[in-house]
Design goal:
This protein has 161 residues and is mainly α. The protein has one domain. Helices cover 69% and strands 0% of the residues. Helix 4 runs antiparallel to helix 8. It is globular. Its EC number is 3.1.3.27.
Length: 161
């Protein structure tokens, strides 16, 4: 992140700390990828809880992300700056809904999520361009996560993974 932008956010501010994915969004190259990687320890921890708890945590992460991403975006005075990666964390949680957490699933799910998040096929691109603020920052990644989840479910169904 450029120094003039870095001066606008503080890791001591809870909204910024979380919006920046525990600081992973400050890595100067591929912040979205590192934000997605930051979700893996959370996924591993959630693999020990019931699906009801997983759903609850995912819901809270998604809902609170609207605030964290919106506040961080406001501080930076930029919409969806690359360093804002809480949306990637939420998208990764959505990717693994109702899936067994194995290392191969983590690898495939990660690649699929990044694929959809980066390429933004329709309708992801529509929401990315037309919905703004914290909701817009979150929504495209949540849809990318849903696409990745559907692909993962199909691969499990056909016994590909």
């Amino acid at each position: 992140m450029e120094p003039q932008l870095r001066a606008k956010v503080s890791l001591k501010n809870p909204d910024h700390f979380l919006g920046l994915g525990f600081g992973s969004g400050l890595i100067p190259f591929m912040p979205g990828t590192f934000g997605s990687l930051a979700a893996i320890p959370i996924l591993i921890l959630l693999s020990y809880v019931s699906i009801e708890w997983y759903l609850l945590v995912t819901f809270v992460v998604c809902l609170s992300g609207v605030r964290f991403c919106g506040k961080t975006s406001e501080a930076l005075e930029l919409h969806d700056h690359g360093s804002i990666v809480w949306d990637e964390i939420a998208g990764m949680l959505v990717t693994f809904l109702f899936l067994p957490l194995t290392w191969i699933n983590i690898l495939i799910g990660f690649v699929l999520f990044r694929f959809f998040d980066i390429l933004k096929p329709w309708p992801i691109s529509f929401f990315d361009k037309h919905v703004h603020g914290g909701t817009g920052i979150m929504l495209d990644d949540l849809i990318a996560g849903a696409f990745a989840c559907i692909f993962m479910q199909l691969m499990l169904w056909i016994d590909f993974i």
